[in-house]
Amino acid sequence: MPNMPNTTAAAPDVDCKSLARDLRVDIIRMIEAAGSGHPGGSLSIIDILTVLYWKFLKHDPKKPDWPERDRFILSKGHACPALYAVMAKRGYFDKSLLSTLRKLDSPLQGHPDRLRLPGIEFSTGSLGQGLSVGVGMAYAAKLDKNAARTYVVLGDGEMQEGQNWEAFMSAPKFGLDNLVAIVDHNGGQIDGQVHDVMDLEPLADKLRAFNWDVQTVDGHDDAAVEKALAAAQKSGGKPHALVAKTIKGKGVSFMEGNIGWHGKAPNKDEADKAVAEILNGK
Prior knowledge:
By secondary structure, the chain is of the alpha/beta class.
């Protein structure tokens, strides 16, 4: 068995709520500095990413290409400010780089770019492709007898893409119980409410009908997310799906549930107000 790097998974004493609060501030500040970006969907997934990166994901920032690492794909790539904030905190790069989001020659592009930033497994931008790639990675791990798991975070809007449903069909066929798909079900997309654009419900029942092990969870309750991810570690021969109920713009009152903040950067006054609310827990 190869020597295992000093991985950063499984930190049971970490206060994920406090971490997520600080990471929300980083998200707001980097999008403010960029003058563009997607705060709504970044804020809705940060609690999930915090639990995943601190308590479950087997990875090593010093050796991002470690063969035994778990794989993570942010299929909703426009929410990369959340991923960048997490990666900086985890030590993949210096936090000062966050202020270069979306700048020319920055490795922190508006969508994750694996050629520019070590630790990114797949360059995501065009929605609907991440789960298909995740199926391939999980299948490859099975063939290689590698214990690595693959985690994919999808947006509910991109669930309207047909390619996702081909991936949902294929994963059970290959017995990919090492694959975990997490749907950020915040109910909003750039064109409006998901249920108005193309309703997904009953989403959990549909995934079960595709032969997935499915859990529905409050995506902002770190204890509930941790419990659900722990349950997804069990095999049973089926891939695992978490339908995470979240709020777009979570943590900032004037952004919460507001489609206008899907892809709009706050100005300084708005960012200051948002940060004050986050830090005060309002």
